[in-house]
Amino acid sequence: MRIDIISIFPEYFTPLEVSLVGKARERGILDIRLHQLRDWTHDVHKTVDDTPYGGGPGMVMKPEVWGEAIDAVIAQGGPEGAGLPRMIVPTPSGRPFTQRVALEYAREPWLLFTPARYEGIDARVVDEYRSRLRVDEVSIGDYVLAGGEAAVLVIVETVARLLPGVIGNAQSVADDSFAPGPMENLLEGPVYTKPPVWRGHPVPEILLSGHHARIARWRRDQALRRTFEMRPDLIARLDPESLDERDREV
Ligand SMILES: N#Cc1c(-c2ccc3ccn(Cc4ccccn4)c3c2)n[nH]c1N
After folding, report:
1. Into which CATH architecture does domain 175-249 fall?
2. Residues near ligand 1 with C-beta < 6 Å?
3. pTM (whole model) above 0.90
4. What residues are paired with 49 via a beta bridge?
5. What mean pLDDT comes out for the span 9-26?
6. Which residues on adjacent β-strands are paired with residue 121?
7. Where are the domains positioned within the chain?
8. From 90, 164, 173, 208, which residue has the greatest number of CB atoms within 10 Å?
9. Residue 176 among the catalytic residues
10. Superfamily of domain 2-160
C-alpha cells in the first residue's frame, strides 16, 4: 500500500517511522510519503491560509495551494494498476471512522491524506476532487482537535495493522473488538500474564485451567459484561442472531 500525506507539519508523522508501521515500511508492505504543503506556495511567507468569506473566527486554508499540492502528488502516479488515490480528509464534520471503514481502506492500493489546520480547507477543494477521485471526509471522534494530523496517525495505524503480514498473529486481528463477525460491537475483556499472583491479586482460575472451551466462554462473558458496563450503546447493535442462550444470561 502506498500512502501520501500532505501537511504543513510533516514532522508530526515521525511516529510512523517506529513500531508496527515503521516495520511495515522497512518490509515494503507500506510506502508512506510525506509532503510539505508550503512547497506549493509562491509568496515569500509561504502563505497557506486566509480570512473566511462571510466573516467569523479563525482562518481557512487556501484552495489554490491545496489544489497544486494534490495535483502534484497525483501526477507522481501510484502503484502499478492503482489508478487514482482514495483521498481521505479528516474533519470534525466527517463520517465516523470505524473498524469497518478501516477494513475498506486496508483494501486500497493508494491513499492520499490531506490533514488541514486552522478552521479547515476551503470547501471547493473537496468539491473539485470529488469530480475526479473517491473522497472521504472522516472523523475519528466527537471532540475537536487542532488539526487533522493526529487523525491521520490514528487512521494509518488502524489500517496498517489490518494489512497482511503486519500483525504476526492474524487471529488477533480477526478477534479485534469492532471487527465484523462474532466480536463486532463487543469490547475486549481483561487480559493477564505472569505472575499468577501479583500484590495479592490472583489471575482468574479459569485462565490457568487449560480448558479452552471454558476459557473461550469466560472471555466472551467478560467481553459482554465489559461492553454492557462501558458501552451500553453497543449492546443495542449486537446482532441477536449472534447471541446464544448463555450470552443472554450474562
Ligand atoms: N478527524 C478529525 C477531527 C478533527 C479535526 C480534523 C481536521 C482539522 C482541521 C482543522 N481542525 C480544527 C478545527 C476546529 C474547529 C472546527 C473545524 N476544524 C481540524 C479538526 N477534530 N476532531 C476530529 N475527530
Report:
1. Orthogonal Bundle (1.10)
2. 90-92, 94, 116-117, 119-120, 139-141, 143-148, 151
3. yes
4. 61
5. 97
6. 61
7. 2-160, 175-249
8. 90
9. yes
10. SPOUT methyltransferase, trefoil knot domain (3.40.1280.10)
